[in-house]
Amino acid sequence: QVQLVESGGGLVQTGDSLRLSCEVSGRTMLAFTMAWFRQIPGKEREFVAAVKYMGRQIRYADSVKGRFTVSRDNGKNTLYLQMNNLKPEDTAVYYCATTESDYAGPILDEYDNWGQGTQVTVSS
User: What tens-digit pLDDT sequence spans the chain (124 residues)?
Assistant: First the structure.
């Protein structure tokens, strides 16, 4: 069974940076497209970024382009999200997810496994 554990969240100020990590266990992450989503209470979970296996294709939400960078270290079975120039509207719980399909996009139902989330809070 695949398990995903996110870490790296915290409380920062506007303009600061954070790097989130998602450690995968149970299977090699080589087989997966991996993604980051985020969710604010009372709102739908929204897509942030996705990267296909071997990093051959990367996709970002328009709201984070130029500020966030997704990467994966298949040897360490870990997915990362480098977040720069953080804004208060980036405040959310961030989740990582995996899919064995060839899909790398915003549709939640395409993803099979989810982590428990890590809170990111950006103060103004």
Answer: 889 999 999 999 999 999 999 999 987 766 789 999 999 999 999 999 999 887 779 999 999 999 999 999 888 999 999 999 999 999 999 999 999 888 899 999 999 999 999 999 999 9
Tokens of 42: 């009372």
Residue in 51, 45, 43 with CA at minimum distance from that of residue 68? 51
| Amino acid type, 87 | K
Q: Provide the token pair at 59.
A: 């996709």
Buried b / exposed e over 21-51, threshold 16 CB at 10 Å, is: bbbbeeeebeebbbbbbbeeeeeebebbbbb
Structure tokens, 109? 């139902």
